Structure formats: C-alpha cells, structure tokens
Amino acid sequence: MSEKIINNNSIFAIALKEVVPKTNEQNTQYNAQHNEQRINPTRTLDFYFSKKNSIDEILGRTAAQLAIEIGANCVVSFKKLNNESPNEDKIPIKVSVFKRDFGFKKLEYETKIRKEILGSINPTKEILIEAVNKKFIKNGDRVVCVQDQSLGTGFHGLIFVFDVDKLFFNISSYKLTENIEPEVIQSVINLALEIGKEGREGKHIGTAFIIGPQEEISKYAKQIILNPFNGFPESMRKIIDEDLKETIKNFAQLDGVFIINNDGTILSAGTYLEVNTNIDELKNLKGFGTRHLCSAAITKLTKSIAVVVSESGGIVRVFKNGKIILTLS
Question: What is the number of alpha carbons within 13 Å of residue 193 lying toward its C-beta?
Fold first, then answer.
C-alpha cells in the first residue's frame, strides 16, 4: 500500500483551483443564457446538449464546487483498479484525498475492500474508516465523497456529503469494522443508546448485543428460553431493519443477550453465555455485574464485539478483546 502527496493537474486539482474565480463568471453566463432562453428556448437546449464533457470531468468540477460552497474541507474519490483477481475476496481500490490542510494537494494511495459490500454506499464508509485510521480524516471533518461507476453500484457516478461525527470517528479509530459491516455496528450502537435512554415501561432495562462469527460464539452460548427469532428467514432478522426496532426493544427485557452474526443477522435473543469470567484480563472490571463480565469475556475468547446497556443509568459500553473501548450515554 503506497501513500504520497502529488501536485498534479487532475480534474479535482484543476477544479479546486478554478471553481471559486469562475463562480461569478458562471453566474453571468447563466443569467445571459436564461435571458436567451426566454427568446429562443430551443437554441438554449441545443447549446446544453451539444456539450459532451465526460462524466468524470463533470463529477470532479461539481464535487469541487460543492465542497467550497458548503464549507467542506475534504474531497475523497475512489475507483476500482483493473488488476483484480477473480479468486480474491477483496478488490483493489485507488483512493484520492484532497484535504484543505494540504492546500488541496492530492494524497493518493491504494487499498482493498471486501467484494460483498459492493452495490451500495458501503464502499465509501469502508474507505472513510481507513482514512480515519490513517489520520487523513479527523473528527468534525465534512467530506464530499465521489464514487464512480467502476464499483458496480448501477450508477454512472455518485456524489454525497458525509460529516465525520464522534461516533463514526470512534468506530473507525478502534477498528470495530474489521470483520463487521459499518452499518451493522452503527445500528447496534444507536439501538443500544435508544434502549438506554428510553428504557421500557418507565424503567431502565439492561441488555447486551454480541456481534461476531456464529461458529465461534455458539461454543459458549446456551438458549435459556425459546428463541423468538427461530424459524424466520434471514431477510426478516436484520439488525439494520428499522421495522424491527420496537420488536428488539421489547425482547431486550428478556434475561440473556442478543447474538448477531457479522452480516447483521439476529441469531437469537434471551441467550445465556457460559464463559469463565475469573481471568486476569477482567480484573479491571471489578464492580461490574454478570452481564458486563460475560460480555467482556466472550470478546476475549472470540473475534466479537459486545455492546452492553447498563440497567443502572442506561450507559452503553462497547467491549473488544475483553476491554471497554467506548463508553456512551
């Protein structure tokens, strides 16, 4: 993986240098064309449709102007490289970062993303997470993201704005998405925060979500009640499904924890964790209850993440490798 600062004449670099001084000129041209349209609308349409600028060029200039007009301090673009191996589960990506801190110079590097996240905006989140880890993007940055058609999303190009808030920054910094899709982690944490804040029937409730590979977690899991998610198709058990939120909040009153697969499929609720909590790594958690200790232990024994809602106060804690890495309220 290579990283370097490049002074070049790419579409973005040109656009970022030229877009501000040209704004007044463009407004003048627009007004003139608008006045002409009143007299001869057909000629004006011909003028527009006869311009055959490339989509990449238009995307570049549009993203640059958008970044300046909304006060964004970063533009990120990425496209798939051609040296993809059909047998690999990841595809090579070329990432270009234009940061105001660099005087809008181009920082470029190559990386890889998982194939299964293609077809949505998830590649952008995956790449932004890596950019945070590399310290190219910081908490509070406003980023204009440009994604071209090479990623197979079904569009010729996408432009959207992303604000790097504290939660996304922390998720990125602590590498919570190494094996789990970003939207799954975010959905679980947001849901846990709602449960901690709202409670149920006027009182605080405690619960926990264990996210990780089913084959590992199942070794330590025991169902203490009839699993309410048993028998339903996977498509109806996705943690990111907004329609499931109230159902999950109701089941959060059950003893035990939720088990969620890496892809966000809810495997069970009311599940008991049979783990040894009397280990050296958990000594710093003295004073916490069984739910917290078991959740911490399972993340030490497996490649999982635990999101725990405290019954006393509704505080949400995130565990990884047996340690508290985030405390939210």
Answer: 11
